[in-house]
């Protein structure tokens, strides 16, 4: 009887042991399969990130003047407003400059005032340049006309520049005495003296009223020693001369269009 009970006890212990071993074996197999499946599952593909779009900044520029602005005797892209546009667009990322020119060979201050009235440009320009007066001198107009009309033109330029005088650049009058044409005059020295008078008035007015004035007259006074500064007509600035004008104008113009 005792031996039979002991046999049953031993059999029960073996059965329990087998159940436990079977249980752990199954668990181990399931975990292995899970790890294996997880290990071979491909990682999710990274989602492409949206790239920042390049935004172009479009600003408007109007150039007011006479033959020195329209670029008499040089190509359309050689005149200083076009060279200035190209320089600014090449040095300021994403800048697009919309250029308008109101200028014509032979125009005096009176002609420019009338042309602006007739064309009625909008008053939302970011940049305005003004170069005027040589024909007042060449046509022997009374200096008092320039004294009266130059301030009118600068104020009109400010109006076109959204009413902001800081967006206006006045450029000095070139000296054509230092050209073959000017040298044929009986009094080239008188030409220079009178050009100085015009420029002195313009500079003084601009400084008094907080308007930027940029001198380029000295560049044109190198025309007799550097003939490459003179266009083929023997009178007007060449593409090279205009590029030197732009070198002086561009830093201020760049500051304006970046605002």
Report the sheet with the most strands, covering strand number, pairing sense and barrel closure: 5 strands, parallel
Separation of the first and last Cα atoms: 109 Å
Shape: elongated
Look at the helices and sheets and give the structural class: alpha/beta
Order of helices and strands: HEHHEHEHHEHHEHH
What is the strand arrangement across the widest sheet?
2-1-3-4-5
Number of helices: 10
Strand content: 5-15%
Low-confidence stretches: 19-24, 29-40
Number of strands: 5
Helix content: 40-55%
Radius of gyration: 40 Å
Average per-residue pLDDT, rounded, comes to 88
Provide a short characterization of the protein structure.
It contains ten helices and five strands.
Search tags:
single chain, 259 residues, alpha/beta, 10 helices, elongated
Describe this structure in words.
With 259 residues, the protein is an alpha/beta fold. It is 53% helix and 12% strand. The chain has 10 helices and 5 strands; from the N terminus they run αβααβαβααβααβαα. The protein has helices spanning 2-40, 67-70, 80-91, 109-119, 134-138, 143-160, 180-183, 188-208, 217-220, 239-258, and strands spanning 57-65, 95-103, 127-131, 168-171, 212-214. The chain has a 5-stranded parallel β-sheet, with helices on both faces. Helix 6 (143-160) crosses helix 8. The longest helix has 39 residues, at 2-40. The chain is elongated, with a radius of gyration of 40 Å. Mean pLDDT is 88; it is low at 19-24 and 29-40.
